[in-house]
Amino acid sequence: MIEEELRGALAALVDGLPPRQASGAVERLMKGYRHDETAPVLRDRADVVAYAAYRMPATFAAVAAALGAFASRTGEWRPESHLDVGGGTGAAVWAAAAVWGGTAGGPEGTPRRTTVLDRSEPALALGRELAGASAADALRMAEWRHRPLTGHGEGAGPGEAALPAADLVTVSYVLGELGERDRLTVIDAAARAGRAVVVTEPGTPDGYARTIAARDHLVAAGLRVLAPCPHSERCPMVPGEDWCHFAARVSRSSLHRQVKGGSLPYEDEKFSYVAAAHPAVTGLPASGRILRRPQKRKGQVLLELCTAGDGLRPATVTKRHGADYRLARDAKWGDAWPPEREPGEGAASSPG
Ligand SMILES: C[S@@+](CC[C@H](N)C(=O)[O-])C[C@H]1O[C@@H](n2cnc3c(N)ncnc32)[C@H](O)[C@@H]1O
Fold it and tell me: What is the mean pLDDT of the chain?
């Protein structure tokens, strides 16, 4: 499995370092994040090893969840090419392999053409090294290209040179490192380059605000939102009051335990995302999505939904709802709701 392969590759990386060096590099990197969301620059091998070992499992899990939600809206569609913008050590490339496998067209197909762009040479070098040992063709054969997304000079900035075209463009955990104008220039360039664009950001109020600004630009460029939203209209959340985000469970590595202490074997990575596509990609958004962890009570499940017709609203699913109640007991934060049925399957009475 791709996730285990990635974990194995990261564990081998950290095993090669004296424990103090690894946790020292992580602490420096995290201090940068705490003080200034736009600060971290992956300058050298120690920075990128720390980033990969400490953050990559979490960004991988978040992007895999976002791509998984997108894939569940687009059925048989598979990207034959993938461009990862600000891809760093390649979390989104691993995530795409987890969702669609390593090939463009089934197990016997040709490898998905994969390109990673980043300004950090050490990040690209480590990404190449990690992916080089993978069993997935798309990872092993990915191209890792040095490319600053902002600034001037040869090859710099998507405004000056278009991004290479690809079926899928991912922009994950990058917008927070760019100024506001650059962010939107990158998103506009992604909308021109990709048939589908998936943007993932930290699940904080600021990450959500950047995601919504990206969503507005993708919609203005003619893309339709396929996940998580049930429509491409304005987001009904009121900025400052709430923010749309989800959670992906990440097993903690021994390095995490060293740095953070605590005994929990996992943590939840909170993320915001938008997945949108040009009309050439067939697919439909869900008619609603669960926005909070479902609350289970005796004989009922309470859901907070974002819906196509009624915006934000709660729903209570009780035993009276039969099959839907059983599904609601298993439903998770981030799932589509109401449950989608094959023709012929029925519910006792719909909780909507
Ligand atoms: C937080 S890391 C995210 C990496 C990866 N996408 C992930 O999800 O794990 C941000 C990445 O954006 C890259 N980046 C930041 N500003 C950039 C710029 N102006 N041009 C190109 N890459 C940039 C950094 O080098 C780094 O690899």
Answer: 88
Among 116, 174, 271, name the best residue to mutate to test ligand 1's pocket (greatest count of ligand atoms within 8 A of Cβ): 174
Q: What is the pLDDT of residues 88-126, one digit of tens each?
A: 999 999 999 999 987 765 555 788 999 999 999 999 999
CA atoms within 13 A on the CB side of 3: 15
Q: Is 69 in the pocket of ligand 1 (CB under 6 A)?
A: no
Residues 230, 307 contacting (CB under 8 angstroms): yes
Nearest to 189 by CA among 166, 209, 212: 166
Distance (angstroms) between ligand 1 centre and the Cα of 107 equals 31
| pLDDT tens digits for range 169-199 | 999 999 999 999 999 999 999 999 999 999 9
Peptide bond into 338 cis (omega under 30): yes
Q: In Å, how far are 129, 301, 320, 322 from 348, measured between CA atoms?
A: 54, 16, 7, 5
Instruction: Quote the DSSP letter at residue 170.
Output: E
- CA 50 to ligand 1 center in whole angstroms: 14
For 36, 51, 163, the CA distances from 33, given in Å and listed in that order, are 5, 11, 28
Report DSSP state, residue 336. Answer: B
What is the model's pTM? 0.92
| pLDDT tens, position by position, 286-343 | 999 999 999 999 999 999 999 999 999 999 999 999 999 999 999 999 999 998 876 5
User: 42-78, pLDDT tens digit by residue?
Assistant: 778 888 888 888 899 999 999 999 999 999 999 999 9
Q: How many CB atoms lie within 10 A of CB 20?
A: 9
Q: DSSP strand E in the chain: where?
A: 81-85, 113-118, 143-146, 166-172, 194-202, 224-227, 246-251, 266-277, 288-290, 295-297, 300-307, 311-318
Whether 62 and 269 have beta carbons less than 8 Å apart is answered as yes
What's the whole-number mean pLDDT along residues 255-261?
A: 71
- Give the whole-angstrom CA distance, residue 172 versus residue 84: 8
For residue 341, report the distance from its CA to the centre of ligand 1, in Å. Answer: 40
